[in-house]
């Protein structure tokens, strides 16, 4: 029987062990999609306790606390850090089969040097040991990033953001990790949202001019793309949670924009027309800049009205949507490809039902650049062992696994970098099994290069961002 979370955790063959320990384990990290903020890195955020670092913004853990019957006051409410930590310690032993059981203990080991299993009985001891580590002074945002050898990370930023902290970090030569913004224009796309007019007013403020017309709106977006590019942005991102492509023309969108600007109701069809036109417009801008474009498709967000009103959005009340969008995605990519203005694109699906659709869709628009259209890593509810294995095997079955750009954290927690290790172990285990089943030659040096490329090298080449070695 193997020991819990030993050095060969998740590695089932000798080939897998060699690939991980000799090739993948010590590769640096390029976390090209996360929800950290440049502010906390620029200010070198420090934590008062393990609960603040661990539970403060982690909706993955919040969902499980609620599922274990823990009252909200111990989740996002007013209870003390220690009381919240104790409730998590009581919950963890119930999580057999859940990736949070592995992640919790990987983070205890890698971040705090704690090998004990977290239970209600060990909670006090782990609370004391972890907080002692935090209080030593070397447990800050920058130190954590350095500890995991993160060479670059991409935050997720609204076009109306000033990016002042990114500029501050760019000029700070005492910190080697590149912290780059990502252009996330969901506020510009969701014309039907109650927040749209307020978002336009914020856009006007950073643009420096009143926006009366759709043409002026597009000019303002173009201006913000230019600004983001100057600060180092090379990547955009879009959350697409409903239909997102129909044929649309600028004249129609002028009318739709005017209606929204005057706070008149927008139909679902009009919202889709508007979103479609703006996505194509932005895609062409990205192509011109040499950026890559990300689509995160399939979230069903803020489903619980009572809790949305109580604790706000992005607090763990989202799930997987089941709308179909193959035709929308095909038409959108094709519209950009017709004029040869389709940028490098990374596609993520939240519903695992869509794995093969998404992977084969990527294959329709490849060319010129190795792996130009990526079937992105297992996202959100899928970034667990079964989901990662399914994504890797689907890509291998219908595409070229060796061109895959690998893992990201998609996290608000600085302690989530252990997810890269988790992914690398799973990747090496899959490849190791193929070799030992006689499905691929036992060329460990070549396979070592493959897992190193997927772990780090491919994303560095894909985004064309040269990093310090």
Structure description:
- The protein has about 475 residues and is of the alpha/beta class.
- The chain has two domains: about 45-135, uronate isomerase, domain 2, chain A; about 150-465, TIM Barrel (Alpha-Beta Barrel), CATH 3.20.20.140.
- The protein has 20 helices and nine strands.
- The chain has a four-stranded parallel sheet with strand order 4-5-8-9, covered by helices on one side. Strands 1-2-3 form a three-stranded parallel sheet. The chain has a two-stranded antiparallel sheet with strand order 6-7.
- Helix 1 (about 15-25) crosses helix 19, helix 1 (about 15-25) packs across helix 20 (about 445-465) and helix 13 packs across helix 14.
- The chain is globular, with a radius of gyration of 23 Å.
- The mean pLDDT is about 95.
Structure in a nutshell:
This protein has helices at residues 14-24, 38-42, 50-55, 59-67, 81-91, 99-112, 123-135, 141-147, 164-170, 186-189, 196-207, 214-231, 250-261, 268-289, 305-311, 326-338, 355-363, 385-398, 418-436, 444-463, and strands at 29-31, 150-154, 178-180, 235-240, 292-297, 299-300, 319-320, 344-349, 373-375. It is α/β, with parallel strands linked by helices. It folds into 2 domains: 46-135, uronate isomerase, domain 2, chain A (Orthogonal Bundle); 148-463, Alpha-Beta Barrel (TIM Barrel).
